[in-house]
Amino acid sequence: MTEELSMILDDASDSMKKAIQHLEAELVKIRAGKANPQMLDGIVVDYYGSPTPIAQVANITAADARTITVQPWEKNMLQPIERAIINSNIGINPQNDGVMIRMFLPPLTEERRRELVKRCNGEGEHSKVAIRSIRREAIEQIKKLQKDGLSEDAAKDAEKEVQDLTDKHIALVDKHLAQKEKEIMAV
Fold it and tell me: Are residues 128 and 181 in the same domain?
């Protein structure tokens, strides 16, 4: 196999792995009935004029299965953190006691569970679309190499390898979604 082909396949594989990692990161943010400090990832707070992730200005812990506590390192950051959590629209009301912020996760209703599963499936579909577009780009690059003199057999083998990679990563997405759905629907 030529060096260009192996580079195309490696790039496609790396990109598909990144799509899976992105899916995993997004699924962690969707709560499944138990408190997880990573639910606050992606929420930024105004820290002296610059947007900063909450995790960089406070200690975030899961006190128990239904409670997340946020303890800022500077007391004057309580209000901005509370405002950022409210504005993030994650469906949890923060309670500020003057020292730390507590968030109590209400038990999930059946309807809310179904909504969360739909959201997970939407994230999964985004990942599948990303993986398929990576496949399309890789196959286009292989066809370009074929026009530049690559043998038809080598091109077909490479395209089959790209398709196998795609199938493997799509199956991984489905596996992650099934796992998350099981986690959400467990009462």
Answer: yes
